Sequence to fold (541 residues):
Amino acid sequence: MELILDHVNHSYGDVEVLNDISLSVGSGEIVCIVGPSGCGKSTLLRILGGLEKPDAGAALIAGDPPADSLNPLTYVFQDFALLPWRTVEGNISLVLEDHSVRKDKARAIITDVLARTKLSEFANAWPRQLSGGMKQRVAIARALSVNPAVMLMDEPLSALDSQTRELLMDDLIELWGQVGFSACYITHNLAEAVRLGHRIVMLSRRPGKIREIVDIDIPLNERINHPAETAAIQRRLWEAMRDEARAADRELSDVA
Amino acid sequence: MSLDATNELGAQPRRNVSELQQSGKIKPVPFRGGGFVHSRHRFIAPILFVVLVILWEIGSQTGFISNIALPAPSEAAGAMSDLFETGMIWNHLSASLYRLVVGWSLGSLIGVFVGLAIALFSLVRAGVSPFISALFPIPKIALLPLFIIWFGIGEGSKVATILFGVFFPTVIATYGGVDNVDRNLIRMGQSFGLSWISIVRKIIIPGALPAILSGFRISASIAIILLVAAEMIGAEFGIGAYILMAGALFATDQLIAGVAMLSVLGLTVGWLISRAEHMLLSWRA
Fold:
């Protein structure tokens, strides 16, 4: 299955946030979208997953999602979005209940995703007891439980401290090695993009246009051994983005 | 070599504290933190209560407090034990509790439903919430004569007074609580394909529950106040009727006994709501 954005334009009132964006996320591919703050990255992701309608253009699905996928387009949010009144297990079963997966089958799925995200011993913990990193692992486990065709990740590591971020990036790479999920990964952190992205799409500041698309051929699990190459790509992206970021930083804004 | 230089720096002897202390050139950083923290004192309130009652009793016995102005606690206790001996307390209590329980439960139930409807449907909000704002500040006891005409002089009018008094604060607490549920959680529910009813049942209602329960705390106190007021206007039995009768006869000992019953009732209701919060909101810790 391929997820495609076709010439998407979007405005909030008079403010144009996205201008003629076309991109696609193929099967088993992680596409990172980077750009200065306020360039419409999150809007783009909401349009991709059908939480918002674009003014012009469309989000399209090519091919059928896998038959066992309960929720083909599944989000991972920056603020985790866990229900504080449900345990780790309860938060995952929440999204299974509505797809009539119950009892033994649900239990099997929950055990499996908790094991994949190294959370097995925390099944009965409350979200308030977990660190930020663990909360995001729960959110990733919840996303995996519905077997998504494409994961839509909105700055999933931005609320975490840099050490936790490193750990979670390693975990994500390991997970990708096991499951081979596809993802559209929004971030403002170029280091993350260079570590996790098969392709990096750079947006300009508002209104967001595609400025550059970079494909990185080095396999994800080997990138740590190629610091020079990845650093060079990161540097080049930053050179291209710096002026935009500076201008965006000095902009008055009325939209989030 | 630079490496040696850092070594030299690190090897420099640190200033000897005890040496400085002897020379008097050193003093501790003054402590400025502390205070402004609540610590639990479980027994203070009961002890203070007992001490006050004893002082009051002594004041009455010695004649420092005039018996006309305020009866001695022992006299109030006597009036209370009379109530138990004649069995009248059960008549008064059962009448009051019936009105309180029926009025409060119905008012809360309807209030939560209307509050949810206002919060979830913008048409209902636009239509109903101005009426809520307009009717909330009316003292419901002022409407008692109307309620007597509508619902009869018996239990109906008293239950209706409590019901209406409870209804409005419950509506406001409920829709305020729903409005404050984290929008991101709702969006999360939508993004996982949860049905509308699931989002309401599993995300919105639990999220609004803390606000609804603190609304219950307020509405329960309002219910007790209205209960007494309604019973004072027309009732044979009930704590309010008992207090009114005592007041009319200037039997201040009975009056104090009646007020003590109300106080115990209020404390019990408060305790019950705390238990409910403890059970339903255990996830908050």
